[in-house]
Design goal:
Number of strands: 8
Distance between the termini: 172 Å
Low-confidence stretches: 1-6, 198-214
Largest sheet: 3 strands, antiparallel
Mean pLDDT: 79
Number of helices: 14
Radius of gyration: 55 Å
Strand content: 5-15%
Structural class: mainly alpha
Shape: elongated
Strand order of the largest sheet: 1-3-2
């Protein structure tokens, strides 16, 4: 037992010692492994660090190269900009130097002109002094001559002038009385015949002219290409214009002209102005046409009111109703037998005032009645009434005085006259309409009369050129200075005037001006 026990005891000890040895060996092996791992890890870390250092060096070199290239590029750009700015500065400096030279030259030129001007001014002052002295000497001599003449005649200058004027007055009165008597005798003999002739000629002239001249307006254009734009695609533009204005627009083969036809002169004027604006602007289409026509219609209405106000102010007529003022302005666009209605009414008003003053009546009432006597010709609607009665009703409607209303209604004997102003208005209306030049001539007769005037004067020897101006009321005759002297031009003027008076028919009077001048022309080469 003891042996077994001892064997077992010694076996346990061996086992323990063996286990301990194994454990120690394991620990030693682990330590060795750890040491080996540490050594391996250290070598690996060193390798990684070396690789990182090498890569960092490579990146550093690349970045340095990139920075260097960028620096070189920026340096080149800056050098280019500096060169451009340097060239601009040099150009600006050159311009400044050139401008400075020009200013110096201008300053020198101004200085020279200033010195020349001062020299001329000094010369003029000297000449003015000389002229003033000569003028004083001339006045002294003139005064001495007058005194000498007064001493010789025994009369003062004023007395001699008064006697001469009185003698001329008496002579003129005698000649005028004789001339008036001759005219009256001749008028009594031929009045009936001449009156019938004038009436027939007036009817023949007015019968066609009024319908043509007063219902048509010719609109001139620069070229015939504009006609196509006015007509528009498939006629849309011209239809829109006719619908907006109420005027017939005739586009035919007449070169550079378009005819506006209509019996309402205000509508024709609106159409003419609208067409002018459209052609000037260049934009022609239906929407634009309606816009322009509406705008022009407003302008014409404003112009009518302004014309009425200006007319009443010019004539000194106050207190008219605004509607009557508008009707007066509307007369500007109406004509009667070729005579502008507003001008006719103004003329009648002035004649009425003068005649009323001569008769001792109220000139203001007469002038007022004369201005309003034809307002029945320009109503807004067209009632079936004579214009005199319609004008009287309009005046009554707008609170005019009874004698003025009666004068308006009776100026064509369509109602009984109840005041003295009525016959004055009737007479002055007839005077204004029948005076020479009041009624319009047709264009062909007008041009023929001007040509006849020029040809008549051109038929005289020594006449170089003739010009009929002022609508045939003045004839200027240019004669050669080497063919007619100064003493003959007065006789030539009187002879031409007498021949025109004997051979031609004309309104008013014709002034003949004969011009003779001498020119000396030389050339500096």
């Amino acid at each position: 037992m003891w042996c077994v026990f001892l064997n077992l005891k010694y076996n346990k000890m061996e086992i323990v010692s063996l286990s301990t040895g194994i454990l120690v060996g394991v620990v030693v092996a682990l330590v060795i492994c750890a040491i080996l791992y540490k050594v391996r890890l250290s070598s690996r870390t060193s390798s990684i660090l070396n690789d990182a250092r090498a890569e960092a060096e490579t990146i550093k070199r690349d970045k340095m190269l990139e920075v260097k290239e960028k620096f070189i590029s920026m340096k080149a750009d800056l050098e280019k900009q500096l060169a451009v700015r340097s060239s601009k500065v040099q150009s600006a400096e050159a311009k400044v130097r050139q401008r400075e030279m020009q200013l110096n030259q201008q300053q020198q030129e101004l200085q020279r002109k200033k010195s020349e001007t001062e020299a001329v001014r000094a010369n003029l002052d000297t000449q003015v002094d000389v002229v003033e002295k000569k003028k004083q000497e001339l006045e002294r001599l003139h005064k001495a001559e007058i005194e000498k003449l007064e001493h010789i005649s025994g009369l003062s200058a004023e007395e001699a002038k008064d006697r001469l004027v009185e003698s001329l007055k008496e002579e003129a009165k005698t000649q005028a009385a004789s001339y008036i008597n001759d005219i009256m005798d001749e008028a009594r003999m031929t009045a009936n015949k001449e009156a019938k002739s004038i009436v027939v000629k007036t009817i023949q002239r007015v019968a066609t002219e009024t319908a043509i001249e007063n219902s048509v307006t010719v609109f001139h254009i620069d070229s015939d290409e504009i006609k196509g734009r006015i007509i528009g695609r498939e006629g849309r533009n011209i239809r829109a214009l006719e619908a907006a204005t109420g005027i017939e627009i005739i586009v035919d083969d007449t070169p550079e002209a378009i005819v506006l036809s209509g019996f309402d002169p205000v509508r024709r004027e609106i159409a003419r102005l609208a067409l002018h604006q459209l052609v000037t602007d260049g934009r022609i289409h239906p929407a634009r046409i309606e816009e322009v026509v509406a705008k022009v219609r407003k302008q014409v209405e404003d112009e009518i009111i302004e014309t009425g106000k200006r007319t009443t102010i010019d004539l000194g007529i106050h207190g008219l109703h605004p509607e009557l003022i508008r009707l007066v302005g509307k007369m500007k666009y109406r004509s009667s037998y070729g005579q502008n209605l507003l001008q006719h009414s103004r003329e009648t008003a002035n004649l009425c005032a003068i005649m009323a003053s001569e008769l001792g009546l109220n000139p203001k009432k007469a002038k007022r009645a004369g201005l309003l006597h034809d307002i029945g010709k320009v109503p807004d609607d067209e009632p079936e009434l004579p214009h005199a009665l319609l004008g009287m009703k309009l005046a009554e409607k707008y609170k005019e005085k009874p004698e003025i209303c009666n004068a308006i209604g009776a100026h064509h004997d369509e109602t009984e006259m109840s005041s003295l102003i009525a016959p004055i208005v009737q007479v002055c209306d007839a005077i204004s309409g029948a005076r020479p030049g009041a009624r319009r001539e047709i264009v062909e007769a007008y041009i023929k009369r001007l040509n006849d005037l020029e040809q008549l004067a051109l038929s005289y020897p020594g006449v170089l050129k003739t010009y009929a101006i002022q609508a045939g009321r003045e004839l200027r005759v240019i004669v050669g200075a080497d063919k007619i002297d100064d003493s003959e031009i007065e006789a030539l003027s009187a002879e031409i005037a007498k021949r025109i008076q004997d051979e031609m028919t004309y309104p008013g009077q014709v002034k003949i001006t004969v011009i003779r001048e001498t020119r000396a022309v030389s050339f500096a080469k």
